[in-house]
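User: Hey, my collaborator sent me this sequence without any context and asked if I could get a structure. I don't really work with proteins. Can you help?
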Amino acid sequence: MTITPEELAAVKTREESLAAIRERCEMATPGPWVYDNAEEITGIWYPDEEESVFIVRGSDTINEEDAAFIAASRTDVPFLLKEVDVLGELLELNKELAEVSFALFMHTELCIKKAAFGVKVTREDEGKHQELLAQRETILSEIKTVELSRKIVE
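Assistant: No problem. I've predicted the 3D structure and written it out in structure-token form, which is a compact way to encode the shape of the chain:
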């Protein structure tokens, strides 16, 4: 299957798609929304303190499961967007951790080879090792902080 230039131009990046979803969330009536199947009126509404704002009102074409899904989406989508943000942040931190860990591994290997050939490990080597260890610990601490904040939000 070949993708035409027009089809390719229409494809949104992940960031563009998430930005569009965020914009729709921000523009929608605030949540939470409630689905009610009362006899007098059926609908999805936002229970404001002063008045109820109907999102969908009295539709015979929507079943209860779909209505419950639509009502829950007002709070589910923002939660999922936050989760995407947190997971993206964790992904970036883990990439940094991998890079620093690899640099630490390579530096350690270099020092081991120096020692094996009778070359003295310098203070500069030791300083570099300590610097890489400190970077690694900082990133691990950031990861723990993000993971902890994620648990608090859940």
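In plain terms: The first helix runs from residue 5 to 10. You can pass these tokens on to your collaborator as they are.
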